[in-house]
Amino acid sequence: MSTPPRQHAYTGPALPVLLEPTHAERTRTLLHLNSLATLSTLSRKQPGFPFGSLMPYALDSAGRPLFLISNMAMHTQNIKGDPRASLFITQPSADGDPLGAARATLVGNILQVPDQDKPAVRELYLARHQNSSYWVDFADFSFFRMDILDVYYVGGFGVMGWVTAPDYAEATPDPLATSAPGIIEHMNADHADSMILLAHTHSQLEATEATMTSVDRLGFHLRLKTAEGMKGTRINFPNQVTTPGETRTALVAMVQAARNPTT
Predict the structure, then answer these.
(1) The domain containing residue 189 runs over which residues?
(2) Which of 76, 168, 218, 261 is the residue whose CA sits 20 to 30 A from 28?
(3) Could you list the mean pLDDT of each consecutive 10-residue stretch along the chain, which spans 263 residues?
(4) Which of 146, 159, 177 is nearest to 29 (CA)?
(5) Number of domains in the chain
């Protein structure tokens, strides 16, 4: 099973443990949202040393990375000599601090895709990288796939853990993954007062400013400016949400309940 997330030390009132997406789900979400990573292979020229390359990828239904690479590329030569490799994926930092951004490292063997799987892999890859249609049929290009052995996820400061390959394969991306930036932008632009109220009601924190930093199917995180300095908190939705419409409905209901606690 996925390792439970480690959280920053908290010195405020005792709060209930809130459900969050697992490390496996967050890793699948991270890979779903990106299509470019750093591939580290074992160097043939300098045996035992890792060799890093910038690598576009697509994903199959089990979350396995798919690559279209030239036989002339150094990483391809390395893979053919030793298939062991790792793939590092990170998200852009929202606040300019790269160490606070989510990232993951996949460890596994990269093997050439067998002939019977090539049509399906080709379709998946070109759907993610349309420009590759110009060279996909060149004789020196081949499809490769990573068979994942292990996964390590880092969600920011103090949030990290190993994810087993089966847990990763069984997880799915968060349903709000693609719509989250729009939800966050809207809340921060138009509903700061509502978020301050929710922080008071659900986390017993008095804030003068509130910024939503993330949202998922189970809840959202806020960054708060308080008299004691900057604080962070997570607030869960009453029920799981899967669409922007459901998210809006849940937030409106939560704000109404906070404004009228006896109704």
Answers:
(1) 180-259
(2) 76
(3) 43 61 96 97 96 97 97 96 97 66 94 96 97 94 98 85 97 96 96 97 96 94 94 94 97 96 71
(4) 177
(5) 2
